[in-house]
Amino acid sequence: MGATQGKELSPQMRERVLKLFAKFDVDGSKSIEKTETIKYWKSNFAKLNTEELFKSVDTDNSGTISEEEWLNFWTSVLRSGHTEQEISDELESIETGSSWCKFENLDKKGG
Predict the structure, then answer these.
(1) Which of 39, 44, 57, 64 sits CB 3.0–4.6 Å from 31 for a disulfide?
(2) Global pTM?
């Protein structure tokens, strides 16, 4: 398939990723806080899911996840060899309340 380094999310996938971001970002601050993700997952291992999410996505360790960090994370998933269909499946799973999936071997360069 060739190099995945320069791959970007399609406009449709970018919109889908941001739609899920907005579901977490209930206060509309353009950042996700741990209290928001704990509320999102309710009792479905909420604290564990939150910790794994923040370990994966909060690259500047600020305690919040910005839209930029969120988009960079999903772009790195794509660049690591996952397809947009796989990303779509994972987004759908998260949207229905399933646990956070830890993706391995991602390039975690800050944006």
Answers:
(1) 64
(2) 0.85
Q: Which ranges in 1-111 belong to alpha helices (H)?
A: 11-24, 34-41, 46-57, 67-79, 84-95
Chain centre to alpha carbon of residue 36: 14
pLDDT tens digits for the chain (111 residues)? Answer: 444 556 899 999 999 999 999 999 999 999 999 999 999 988 768 899 899 999 999 999 999 999 999 999 999 999 999 999 999 999 999 998 888 877 766 665 444
The answer for residues whose C-beta is within 8 angstroms of residue 17's C-beta and 6 or more apart is: 9, 70, 71, 74, 87, 91
Cα gap 21→31, rounded to integer Å? 8
How far apart are alpha carbons 17 and 61 in whole angstroms?
Answer: 21
**Dist. CA 94–CA 40, nearest whole Å:** 10
In Å, what is the CA distance from 99 to each residue of 7, 62, 84?
26, 22, 19
